[in-house]
Amino acid sequence: IQVNQRWAGHPGMLVENLRMPPTPYAPGGSIVPTSSANDFDALDGASVGSGRRDAASSGIANIRTGSPGQVTTVLIGSGLANLGHTLESVSMSFRYAAGYTGGGAAATVSVVLLSAHNLSLICTLFTSAPLGNFSWDHFQGYSPPIEVHASGCKVSADLVMVALRITNNQRNLQIPVDDLAAGFNLKVDWVNTEDTTSTGLRPRQLFEAPIRTQGMHWAPVATAPTSVTDPAATQLGHGREHTGKFRLRGRDQLGGIFGVGQLWAKKQPNGALAVLLINYSPKNVSGHSVPLDKLNLTALSYQVRDLWTHSNLGNVSRQISFSVPPFDSAFVLLTPAR
Asked: Of the candidates 295, 294, 316, 314, which has an alpha carbon nearest to the alpha carbon of residue 305?
């Protein structure tokens, strides 16, 4: 997706990043989605782009772990909601090819648990041996799966992140997102306990603090859907192709995409505001409510005009609600009502 950040020569404002809800506790364990570029947030110099394809990966998404000498982090999923239970074990697997062949010490990969509230380290679950035996520069295939089966780091903080922490040393890694297989096949298991001594974070604070996302923006978990019968809200969403409005770009443009979508806004003359919600995920965005004061709008009510269909949708006060199909968008103009 390409967004022109300089409408009419002036930058728009990124209001928020939309994220999927965290993976919740389940008695038999939960599978964390790991088969799409949207499931990963690459930080500290790591990036998500295209890669080489094989039987397990289409090549659409590939994690580059940064440059030699960097220590980088890749967040996996939108967090784990422990809901008063203790996280007991994590299992997953990944493959790799190593860059800078002949360049010296190979990279290592750790699987870690981080606080979703500030990304501080809670514990290290696993650290690999140096990973340098399968070359990216003289590519003949990715490595066999590196299997991770970790337990013993019991965590009771209500919202945590699973992440890869990569020490590149003198050689970086290319880690394919195996979208034709089971991704990283990441599964977590819990035991039922209210113990919090391992983290110092109290239970049930799941929605009390925001989650840190790419680019240092703060993205709260999406609010509950707003009913279309709510007189204070207008729901927007369109299931159609857009020509010349925004473009879904090729697989080499996936770097930096994380989560579900983004909400952009730009001031217009006479107190109006243009608002664009982009859903770049394969899932529906349903009833995503945005308070008008979050958009710095202070009038009592605003007239909503759909800029895609060139139609008026009535007035809103207090909030506006968006419902957008996969790989689609809603684009509206909010004008103070007279």
From this structure: 314
Rounded-to-integer distance, Cα 260 and Cα 162, Å: 18
Strands 319-324 and 235-236: parallel
User: Cα(181)–Cα(184) distance, rounded to whole angstroms?
Assistant: 9
Tokens linked to 150: 């970790």
Please state, in angstroms and as integers, the Cα–Cα distance from residue 58 to each residue in 40, 53, 93, 183, 252, following that order: 17, 5, 17, 11, 12
Tokens, residue 173: 């890694």
Q: Which amino acid is at 205?
A: Q
Identify whether the C-beta of residue 301 lies closer than 8 Å to the C-beta of residue 316. yes
299 SS3 class: coil
Q: Are the C-beta atoms of 337 and 300 separated by less than 8 Å?
A: yes
Phi/psi at 115 (nearest 5 deg)? -65, 130
Whether 220 and 210 have beta carbons less than 8 Å apart is answered as yes
Structure tokens at 122: 């809670």
> What is the CB-side half-sphere exposure of residue 135 using CA atoms within 13 A?
9
Q: Tell me: the pLDDT tens digits for 281-317?
A: 877 888 889 999 999 999 999 999 999 999 999 999 9
Q: Which residues, in sequence order, are CB contacts of 200 under 8 Å at separation 6+?
A: none
Q: Give pLDDT tens digits for 237-281.
A: 543 333 333 322 222 223 344 568 889 999 999 999 999 999 988
DSSP state string for 187-212: EEEEE-----TTT-PPTT-TTSS-EE
Hey, which residues does 249 pair with through a beta bridge?
Answer: none
